[in-house]
Protein 1
Amino acid sequence: MLEPAAASLEPTTAQLADYAPSGRFDALPADMETLFMGLRMQRRQVKARQYLFRTGQPRHALFLIHAGSFKTCVLSEDGREKITGFRMRGDLLGIDALDIPSYACDAIALDYGEVWELPTAQMRLQFPEFQERLTAELAREIRRDWSWMLALGTLTAEQRVISFLLDLAQRLQERGFSARDLVLRMTRAELGNFLALQLETVTRALSHLHAQGLIGVACREIRIDDPVALRGRLACDA
Amino acid sequence: MLEPAAASLEPTTAQLADYAPSGRFDALPADMETLFMGLRMQRRQVKARQYLFRTGQPRHALFLIHAGSFKTCVLSEDGREKITGFRMRGDLLGIDALDIPSYACDAIALDYGEVWELPTAQMRLQFPEFQERLTAELAREIRRDWSWMLALGTLTAEQRVISFLLDLAQRLQERGFSARDLVLRMTRAELGNFLALQLETVTRALSHLHAQGLIGVACREIRIDDPVALRGRLACDA
DNA sequence: CGTTGGCTTGATACGCCTCAATGCTAGTGG
DNA sequence: CCACTAGCATTGAGGCGTATCAAGCCAACG
């Protein structure tokens, strides 16, 4: 367990709030849940490590994450794997295959998960704005992807890890959790895969930031001690 | 000038056709032009190096590329730049900002360019399937991005260059050009930026492939001599 | 109590970056 | 016509950052 953060530096969340690799593009996160609250929907629970769907399976529905965390990944024919994102409550799974009959990625629960199954055909009829919501969600995903492409292409290993932590902190905060105390739902290997790093490099980056007093590290639990300093390290010439 | 390819290895285009970083996901490319043929549309021409639009500008329209090549790029606050894609005839520019009032990237002509301006509001009324076409285009872009994220995260410098060449060859072929003789519309620096490599590394990779007789290189003109061997190099353990 | 999976740390190797020099081509102006 | 310049491509030498390999630690679990 990590002891709670020293209350020395208070105004850190404000700094965090306007940061994210995707921050400069995005409008506020959509609240799909309230939109569909009245609708009777199929719910589905998945256990840790379980596949929600796999690449190539017939796509019969979209899924709205209600609880838990998921990763989505793509595979090449020769076995190379790449995690394309870590998804959490409010995110939609499966939209990347909206125009084709089968899923285009794997969706795997990191811990446990509960999803709501959206029957797309029915929704289109019932909610005229549904299709527009989908385009919005897709466009947002593109901008997120571009931001990460920018980060992976231009930042060092340590900066990538910082980017990830700050991005995660912001997403947690948007969902009502602390932006300071994070619990990573993925292994070091998965994190490294997403950031295009080896797991040892991720560990070393975290250890280094810890040694400098910027974060607290206890395995999956991360405490962000100095968001301002972290943000400062993201500049090109730092 | 490059002399034409030796006619020794004939059946290469078939191999090429089913390859692309995005190949395993995508359906055939959309023919937007014929769809909108009857419509009276604003056309716009841009010269080399000219911006079609910039990040943050009010988004009043989408653009369909009719001729020429464009690059789209994103910038971070501290000046880091990343080219998110090279676009050509039939591609849509601006869709990544469909849900927000201003453009989310820069679009810059590489040589010259002619685009058709699509008034989105009008199109939605006139073509009921237009919104669905947009979602399809967005989903395809996401899958393309994921494929490149996979490539950049798991391939060596030389493999990335090969991937790019094969992808470009396929896109040219889809548009009725030769899949064997390519003309790069971008500088080595731009190519390196897209592939997360330095321009010298791109040059070295091209020179190396040339020295092995797999391609012909004369500055911007590339001839693909041995697509099969190139494809073979993309395997994980090659 | 052994086994397994995940995390950390160190030593070494290698691929790509960085810096520097050169060549080439096109455009410009004397 | 020929300097002169600017932009782009190529090539080499050396250094750095991350990958790779190896070992040890710890908690969870059968």
Protein 2
Amino acid sequence: MRLPTPWRELESGVCSIARTAELIGQPWMLLVLRDLFNGVRRFDDLAEHLSIARNVLSRRLAALVEAGVVQRTDYREPGQRARQEYRLTPAGWDLRPVLLAMMAYGDRHLTDPDGPPTLVDHAGCGGAVRVALECEYGHRIEPDTRLTGTPGPGARWRSTSSTATG
Amino acid sequence: MRLPTPWRELESGVCSIARTAELIGQPWMLLVLRDLFNGVRRFDDLAEHLSIARNVLSRRLAALVEAGVVQRTDYREPGQRARQEYRLTPAGWDLRPVLLAMMAYGDRHLTDPDGPPTLVDHAGCGGAVRVALECEYGHRIEPDTRLTGTPGPGARWRSTSSTATG
DNA sequence: CAGTATCCCAAGCGATACTG
DNA sequence: CAGTATCGCTTGGGATACTG
């Protein structure tokens, strides 16, 4: 089915996916975030673990700080000299579902036959963590469940009959 | 806290996030996927709507096909000549949570004051769709809930005390 | 309409060297 | 240890032109 031109009205710039992609779609960004979620906090540790050029890492961290995803802080361990660390902000933690959804996809479709390299569990009870879609009325959304996209308050586009995502 | 060197054992190559990032982290990829989810299926429509160079789009679609995310099919509308279309495979639909999680982040943190540009609803009941984290025993995972990462069957790294993601 | 081929050019990665 | 500055050099995007 040929989509009507209204789609043209949906500028990439006012799309939440596009805006998020602008941030996390940069090279290295997702891996930097992965390491931050995993508790790596120091510049040199990130640089070494990722084997990323230091100037690139510097730019990426700056972008994360500017986006409010990461906070740079000075701290001092007792008896040691001052150091700096990069720590996710609450906004940063809101990216966790993105990473976990990516991990779920990779585990399912891109993994060696022996199985997933990493298991993530709920620290409280040890249960495996899943990413689930649901609607506000509590219905589970299965992979093939139909979704509809409609213009929201900040929209610059008109409605179409198309589905799935926006 | 200084992470111990075991982290070095976690090659990026055997990380599900890294592998998924290799696919969807390429420039344009996320926007191509967004349009595919939204029902855009024809080469020229994608090229025009995204304002992407045609050769780049060609490469991206090829990568998606090779990854098994998209299937290229010939079809013919009655009375029309044959056309081709790109359609998400079931594996492709498994990327929907990634896109929706990105959208949720963008809606919350990167949106203009007037609100989100697009609303996604459960087609059955009209309820707004949310991305939720939960553990296998049904506990909700809030943004700040602690998670633990441990080596899985396909791991090439040793355990650490670190948390959150793998 | 649906691509592929070719070219040019800039962005930006990586390496290295340098400062607090 | 934690970065910034400089500098090639390559990758790869964009425009254009060309085929089924």
Protein 3
Amino acid sequence: MKIDPESTADLSVQIAQSIKDAIISGELPVDERLPSESELADQFDVSRSSVREALKRLAAQSLIRTQRGATGGAFVNHLKFENAYHQQITTSSLLLSMNEVSFETACEARFTLERACVPLAAQRRTADQLATMRAETFRQSQPGLTDEAFCASDVAFHRALVDGADNPVLSYQLAGAVEAMQPLMNMITFSARDRAKIVDLHTKIADALESHDAETCDQILNDLMHYTTELAHSVFAKRKKDK
Amino acid sequence: MKIDPESTADLSVQIAQSIKDAIISGELPVDERLPSESELADQFDVSRSSVREALKRLAAQSLIRTQRGATGGAFVNHLKFENAYHQQITTSSLLLSMNEVSFETACEARFTLERACVPLAAQRRTADQLATMRAETFRQSQPGLTDEAFCASDVAFHRALVDGADNPVLSYQLAGAVEAMQPLMNMITFSARDRAKIVDLHTKIADALESHDAETCDQILNDLMHYTTELAHSVFAKRKKDK
DNA sequence: CAATTTTCATTTGTCTGACATTTAATGGTT
DNA sequence: AACCATTAAATGTCAGACAAATGAAAATTG
């Protein structure tokens, strides 16, 4: 692990990259302890501050964790899917809000990816995942639910569907698409009639998955996508008119 | 923007979170200049080092950029899809290598997601994207290509397919799935016969997209997935036997 | 001897102050 | 008006100090 004396980049960037490369290449295996900050400062021939800033960069990406004390130090993190979810969701949300992605485009992406999971989920869904979908659908039918709570339950329903595909890679990739839509969905106010329609579609989706009927499930998800898009259109149109 | 004096978390973590919240909520809009490091240190009542470590954390997530000089400072970044790709790919690659994800699982996820794009790509693919797919397929048919170059061209082919769906959100989400597979694919040595078979399937995929035939394209991608999985199986089996 | 307490060394976290470097604006000179 | 030197402001880097946490070793105690 060395840094290029010719480079004009900030030291902390170079050091972080150097350590990152060592982690990616496997030179530094999971749970390996890095040299102490002072030792790293000596090795790279820089000050401890620069090393610390580099380590903070890596920590922000969950590549390392630090512990204080005698046997403490910086350790290579075992990057787990659960931990990566949050970053994935935050980034996806920011991307949507900063790039003027239309509701339609985001919605299309979300349902397209979700529909891809359906054939697998129809085969593999567990009773437990089905129960979650039923429970969330029931919750959505309760009167007095706020729009936010309704949307949160909606996300939980669809995550259960995605998890039904029993593929952690899929679940991870979909987390961003599904959850990043929530802030957009939260902007919609759902009438009782809207909710009843969605609950109906959710029920049919669960039914289809229960009977391992991928084709029907796919069709209903397609319906749900179109219904959601129309709903958003009418809500946004109304809001524009009121203003 | 304040931090909790009761919290036991590191100062740089709290400060970073506080600024991050302000960015996500829109309180700090894109291209807004943050207060200088010294001003932030005063505001949060901490030292400049702690502020700097917090800013490095944010920079590592591309949430801010910094500029030196008189009119410099830290600015809220416009998070673009192109920039987010790399992080997405790095994270996906590390997740695959650290979580003992089987080749089969990763392959399934990748092709499942890619097949989801097919109906859209069959409708919307541009002549340009089709040309890219043809060109990469041609490159793959050249003798003397290293396995790495063959895989890289393979990735380029499939990215063109995904981009054909003309949905930036989809392209972003798929980047992780498609490119993170490359290191795994690179472990495979392709015989001339394997390559010919893949080139054949790629040609058929391009043909199907050219004639807007989503169904055929989907079937061939399914074939490609199974062929890839079998190929990997036989290669890994042989390697195990040799050892 | 065993259990407990104390001491101690190590490491990260935080603070202070200094200087280097970069950059744009300012003002003076030609 | 064009050019150049100065200057102020900001980040980047360094050095040194102390605080706080933590586990291990040493000392104490029953």
Protein 4
Amino acid sequence: MKRMSSAERRSELIRAAVRVVGRDGVAAATTRAIVAEAGMSLASFHYAFQSRDEMMRDLIAYVVEEESNAAMQSLVVSGDIRSTIRDGLQAYLDLLVQEPAHELAMFELLHYTLRTPGMQDLAQQQYLNYHSSVTRVVEAGARTAGIEWTVPSVDIARMIVTVTDGVTFAWLADRDTDAAGRVLDFAADALAALAIPLNDTSFSSAPPVLPANAFKETHR
Amino acid sequence: MKRMSSAERRSELIRAAVRVVGRDGVAAATTRAIVAEAGMSLASFHYAFQSRDEMMRDLIAYVVEEESNAAMQSLVVSGDIRSTIRDGLQAYLDLLVQEPAHELAMFELLHYTLRTPGMQDLAQQQYLNYHSSVTRVVEAGARTAGIEWTVPSVDIARMIVTVTDGVTFAWLADRDTDAAGRVLDFAADALAALAIPLNDTSFSSAPPVLPANAFKETHR
DNA sequence: GTCTATAAGGAGATAGAC
DNA sequence: GTCTATCTCCTTATAGAC
């Protein structure tokens, strides 16, 4: 294989590992499977990384970063707050149905961090990241829809993550998309009940502007 | 080791495997680890089971059955429906905090079924079981609390499972018990809003009786 | 029925030629 | 820097003595 810097090689290996994990799962992501996917020799792996665990740490940091970015780039405001929430949740469900292996892989990676000694901190970081990303989306959504949350937005975010995680797990098991949709209906109603319209007559008139879109993938 | 019937040996191996999976995870539950836990020789394993996968199938059927039973045996009615729901959810959270490895193991087993070819049906069965167990609890709870659900009870059950799964995952990652409690507060409010009091003047007077307790573990 | 010993293969990691 | 060949360990599964 041609020469490349250690950094290049690490990045190519990580991207190969992401594909293997997404397709076949964490357990199948052996060093051999990863180098085969990347078209490298086995020795190159250990030239770039000291160990498989070191690579896994980097891989997890990489995907968490990627997902947090994805969460921010898609909130389509659809009139009232209830529709906005419901559409955002639906967009996540669509994503899940379209690429189930990806969501399953994210759960498996979390399990890996929870089971691997010395990596619990990474698991905590992973959810801290999700929750703060979704919090930002929730706050942007409130401004755009002209509402105010009656509970802290970080709690709203946690509820959204709770619902998407729960729906994901059940759907992965039973593939009942209609039932998942009914749960999202319920969640959207319940969350919208925590919003109150901003009294926008108290100031001039211009409704609070700000982001044009954010939401959709919710997280992960 | 002393002689025992094949059935006995299978059951002892499964119980040993449950302990290993609960303590160290699915990946650590090798045939060697299991027979060591059970105090048997490696050959005994393959005398009782044709393969490790066959044992895993039996193990999963065993724990699913166990959990479904557990769900039914604890609903403490605490006055109104909102408190009943909240207390049931809290009991589940207490269980999670007390024995996190157990809940993590249940998720890992579901992943195992989702990833193992020819076992997807088991995953479906697993959730069908949970949902129907919780449905029965939800219906019993309605009768005891004298309310009626405004949506099918199987949907109520699915929402409860969604919330407990989602809360479990986030808690396993960040161990934020207070935040988990706030999500459960919200869930209890939202679910209680789907109940309407039964007009118990329409019949004689005796409120619908029935079970003395069911709930608490919710599922799993 | 139950054991010890071993087969057969896959894993992570490394040595050493180029 | 990159490769092939190999080391060592651990896995599931089986053969064959008792």
